[in-house]
Specification:
The structure holds two protein chains of two kinds. By secondary structure, chain A is mostly helical. In chain A, 72% of the residues lie in helices and 0% in strands. Chain A has helices spanning 2-8, 17-39, 48-66, 68-74, 77-96, 108-112, 126-159.
């Protein structure tokens, strides 16, 4: 019964126009909020991990609302893998750059120019590390969800 | 004093929802009860003054809930057929937990100062206490001047304890790579099977 309903839709996996329009309005705000949570992590509560999960949740929202075929045109699984690895490498590079000031994970930017507490450009390496973690976690979770969606699509095709 | 009773009520709510999640016959109810337990935990985090943790808890809980509900809604039959013996197991576990809690508090009463009072963790102990001085006061005094970050939690996570965060990131990376490997090998195998036909 559910298969007959799904075959009537042009794009399998997508939802009704109500959901799609709501997702269209909400998705950009949610993504911006995720980046905001990550990039102000050194001033207010939040951080790279929470922001990355919010960003990945936005991807999940788009996949669920529009279907995985629509999403494949915007972001692909290999792109997520690349961003995941790039974020991890970026975090490691930030840690290694600490050798400029004398050691692993030394806050070299804060040694050179500490910045004012409470401003966006303060905290030395902390906002940059948050950015790397944001990219890493967001891309990783979004990639896993895309892989799950592709996995289910193959499975359903086999059942048919 | 009031906050402790509020937390006790929330813990009771979490216990009840966890029990329902184990006992419910419908998979969707199980997943929703697991989500309720997680949200109660995030409220406890917020009450204890840990907004960073509360944000992460809420966000992860929402994503996990959406994924689980998505997986379950796709299935036609969501009821569980396997017979279970959860009541007896739960009773044994409950008895063990009560015994452990009693032993814990008894030890705190016998050895004075070995157990810090509620809401005062070991790291925040003042100098000269029986358990030794903690590092929390040091962090609060020096983090703003040394790192320039207003949020002390982030200053600890990404500056003083950067190694730990690197390890955490490595754990996430390894688990994600493992998930990719499992999902892609299954999908590839099926595609190869489809090829000849």
């Amino acid at each position: 019964m559910s298969q007959s309903v799904e075959s009537e839709r042009p794009d399998r996996g997508g939802m009704t126009p109500i959901v799609q329009n709501t997702a269209r309005i909400v998705a950009s705000f949610a993504a911006v909020f995720g980046v905001y949570i990550a990039m102000t992590g050194h001033i207010s509560p939040g951080g790279g991990f929470a922001g990355g999960v919010i960003l990945a949740a936005t991807g999940v929202l788009i996949v669920l609302a529009f279907g995985s075929r629509y999403t494949a045109r915007i972001v692909s699984e290999p792109l997520c893998h690349a961003a995941d690895a790039a974020g991890a490498m970026g975090f490691l590079v930030i840690a290694l750059l600490g050798f400029v000031a004398g050691g692993f994970f030394v806050n070299f930017i804060a040694r050179i120019s500490p910045g004012e507490v409470g401003h966006l450009f303060s905290g030395g390496i902390i906002p940059w590390a948050n950015l790397a973690i944001l990219i890493k976690v967001g891309a990783a979770l979004a990639g896993v969800f895309l892989a799950l969606a592709a996995f289910r699509r193959v499975g359903i095709r086999e059942e048919l | 004093m009031g906050i402790e009773y509020l937390i006790l009520i929330l813990i009771g709510f979490m216990l009840v929802s966890a029990l329902i999640a184990v006992e419910a016959r419908d998979l969707l109810s199980c997943v929703i009860c697991v989500g309720a337990a997680g949200f109660a935990l995030s409220v406890i985090d917020l009450l204890l003054g840990a907004p960073d943790l509360a944000i992460t808890q809420v966000v992860v809980e929402i994503v996990a809930l959406v994924l689980l509900i998505r997986m379950i809604v796709r299935r036609d039959d969501t009821s569980v057929q396997t017979p279970r013996d959860t009541l007896r197991t739960g009773l044994v576990l409950l008895a063990g937990g009560v015994m452990l809690a009693a032993a814990f508090f008894a030890m705190g009463h016998v050895v004075k100062g070995s157990m810090p009072p509620f809401g005062q963790p070991l790291l925040a102990a003042p100098a000269g206490a029986a358990v030794g001085p903690g590092v929390a006061a040091d962090y609060l005094q020096r983090s703003a001047g040394e790192t320039g970050a207003g949020n002390v939690v982030m200053a600890i996570l990404l500056d003083y304890r950067g190694y730990d965060t690197l390890g955490e990131a490595t754990v996430i990376f390894a688990s994600i790579v493992g998930a990719y490997a499992i999902l892609r090998s299954v999908a590839r195998g099926r595609r190869k099977e489809e090829m000849p036909t």
